[in-house]
């Protein structure tokens, strides 16, 4: 699909191209396919001359999952489908996504999210589209990008984690300091009350109230 000066694949990574890569790898291993009809049948097509089959190969090449010439699964395709760890598969997924120039542009600007409003305005700037054309295809482009990137796990950078930990520690310490200050202030108040005989004054006042209460009771009686 043409998006201004960019091209984006017609087919999405999941499940179509992922499954196609997996089938090719399982069948041909590291060898290059020599019979295109076998390849077509393997990928669910009756003939290797169909437009759908040719487009599928073009999409696999665009993501870097098969070699530019012939049909042979690349190292990237192997890692995406049979990576030794989740980290390796995730790194392969990111590389495949960034092999699409427009997706790389999006990822550099916004990561895994896209502007929630007026995305078409950004499309006019990035892809060199006229406003009506960008407006017409903005949802198609948005959905295609988000479909491709939805399984990508973005890890926080170590320095970002450090900043988060430092901030959290700072908050906890400030709370502790605040609590200590309150306790200390309260202790000083108590000391002051004791110093100036507040306890004795309070006791005398309570005794006065008791006496008044007894007088009222006797009067009523």
Describe the 3D structure.
This protein is mostly helical. The protein folds into 2 domains: 2-149, no CATH class; 158-220. It is 70% helix and 2% strand. It has a two-stranded antiparallel sheet with strand order 1-2. Helix 1 packs across helix 4 (75-82), helix 4 (75-82) packs across helix 5 and helix 7 crosses helix 8 (131-149). Mean pLDDT is 83; it is low at 163-190.
Keywords summarizing the entry:
221 residues; mainly alpha; 10 helices; 2% strand; 2 domains
pLDDT below 50 for ≥5 consecutive residues: which ranges? 163-190
Class by alpha and beta content: mainly alpha
User: Could you give the distance between the termini?
Assistant: 103 Å
State the helix count: 10
- Main sheet overview: 2 strands, antiparallel
- The overall strand count is 2
Query: How do the helices and strands follow one another from N- to C-terminus?
Result: EEHHHHHHHHHH
**Strand residue percentage:** under 5%
Strand order of the largest sheet: 1-2
Helix content: over 70%
Shape: elongated
Summarize model confidence as the mean pLDDT.
83
What's the Cα radius of gyration?
A: 36 Å
Task: Write down the domain tally.
Answer: 2
Set out the fold topology:
Layout: E1 2-3, E2 6-7, H1 13-28, H2 36-42, H3 51-62, H4 75-82, H5 86-98, H6 101-110, H7 119-127, H8 131-149, H9 158-195, H10 198-220
Antiparallel strand pairs: 1-2
Short characterization:
The protein is mainly alpha-helical.
């Amino acid at each position: 699909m043409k998006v201004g000066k960019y091209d984006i694949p017609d087919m999405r990574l999941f499940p179509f191209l992922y499954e196609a890569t997996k089938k090719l790898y399982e069948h041909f291993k590291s060898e290059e396919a020599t019979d295109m009809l076998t390849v077509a049948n393997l990928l669910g097509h009756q003939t290797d001359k169909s437009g759908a089959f040719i487009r599928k190969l073009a999409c696999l090449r665009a993501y870097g999952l098969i070699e530019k010439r012939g049909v042979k699964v690349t190292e990237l395709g192997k890692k995406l489908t049979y990576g030794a760890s989740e980290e390796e598969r995730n790194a392969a997924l990111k590389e495949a996504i960034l092999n699409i120039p427009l997706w790389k542009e999006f990822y550099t600007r916004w990561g895994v999210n896209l502007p929630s409003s007026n995305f078409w305005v950004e499309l006019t700037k990035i892809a060199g589209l006229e406003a009506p054309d960008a407006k017409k295809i903005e949802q198609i482009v948005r959905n295609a990008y988000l479909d491709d990137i939805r399984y990508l796990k973005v890890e926080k950078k170590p320095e970002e984690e450090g900043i988060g930990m430092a901030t959290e520690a700072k908050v906890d310490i400030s709370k502790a300091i605040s609590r200590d200050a309150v306790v200390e202030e309260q202790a000083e108040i108590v000391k002051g009350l004791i110093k100036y005989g507040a306890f004795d004054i309070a006791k005398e006042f309570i005794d006065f109230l008791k006496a008044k209460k007894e007088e009222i009771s006797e009067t009523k009686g």
